[in-house]
Amino acid sequence: MAIQVSEQLEDQAEFKGALSTRSKLAVNSEKFIAQVLGLRSDIASPDQDTNNFVSNLRQLASDRLATLSFPTTKDEEWKYTDVSALGSLPFANQPAIASRNANLEALIANNIAPESLGNCLVFVNGKYRKDLSDTSDVTEGLVIGTLESLGDRILPKLRSHLAQHPDANDFFASLNTACMEDVAIILAPKNLVVENPVQLLFISAPQAGEATLITQPRCLVIAETHSQLTFVQTFVGEDSQIYFTNVVTEVWLAEGAQVNHTKVQRQGDEAVHINTTAIAQARNSVYKNQAISFGAKISRQNLIVHQMAEQTETSLTGLAFIDGEQLADTHSVISHNYPHGSSKQLHKCIADGRSHAVFNGKIQVAKLAQQTDSAQLSRNLLLSGKARVDTKPQLEIFADNVKCAHGATVSQLDAEEIFYLQSRAIDAESAAKLLTYAFATEAISQIPVVSIQRSLSSFVLEKTKS
Q1: Do the beta carbons of residue 198 and residue 230 sit within 8 Å?
Q2: Measured between alpha carbons, how far is 321 from 379 in angstroms, rounded to an integer?
Q3: Which of 48, 202, 193 is nearest to 120 (CA)?
Q4: Of 11, 10, 16, which is closest to residue 272 (Cα–Cα)?
């Protein structure tokens, strides 16, 4: 056993080195897939019909995986993000769920929003922890839980929504589906207005010296006709530990539904985080997303929005604040498929040290989508001469009566603005930090949960003080 642990630690050291140098390693897709699929556990549902349904989804995804290759930098969509170091991960049996301890308690206490008390599901190392969750104050009619607790109650909803988004089937999304064990589920029934935000908290707490942790959270959110809901996803984990998170979230909005979705990623400095969020909007629905990324060595976010009827509204706000050797990559697609749709997107990156930020945002306007109103802006701030930003806003328009605009800026701190603050008795260093803080808080202020706004603002303020 000691030899096995030693070998795993050597493999982890190799993986850590590969991450730091971003070397391009050849990955054997079949071997990688076989290792991950070999870690699967039984489906977490006691209901046989649900079990059969999910088993079928896992098999379909496994079959699809066999036709896909591990992404490389030769693929246009992964041009700037080399995740080949994952191929050297020493996959083994998943570690046992972490026992309750002081570090775990601190992660929970520091990351659950007070507004979500009584409406929070907690997952540790990919496993639902009922003893750490709190569903004591759930709005009457709202359904929140996991596949294990809800599967037989909402099977018809699962059949029509779970793993049904046509675009959530790339390599990592398919890997997630093929390994799906339990699912975090939020269902807002018709006309229900949910006042308090629902929070899903995912904690990675790997044990030092144990096998490398891999988790693949799965989330399903259904907002039925004219319902209103705010939900928050928070991903945190311990520093100086290597772990891999591969999450997929599907959000379905029926006619007139309104969903606010906040995602905060503050995982450890050696983590790899890949996230796919797929959204489908029906007529007159409103979807607002705020995605904040501060953590992980390598993070990748895929946002895919489909407007499936007229008069739909989409708002995406993003912020990545990175330094050191971090890489943060955001890819988004908003598809306007019907008339009178609108979308707004603001994505900001702050890159310090030798970090690398990537933004690739695509707005698609189909021929039928007349009178679409869409605006997209990518704003980027370089704090170091060695930091790098690659941004690529794109418009694909096939309709002839639309109002669409996009733009991108990459800049350093404005010397004139610093000079102006200096003229107000603020020294140059403090002025630079103040401007950086102001740049970040424009995105944070869009988050509808006040305590999360304050927490993230404090984090940015502390970061700009260092």
Answers
A1: yes
A2: 12
A3: 202
A4: 16
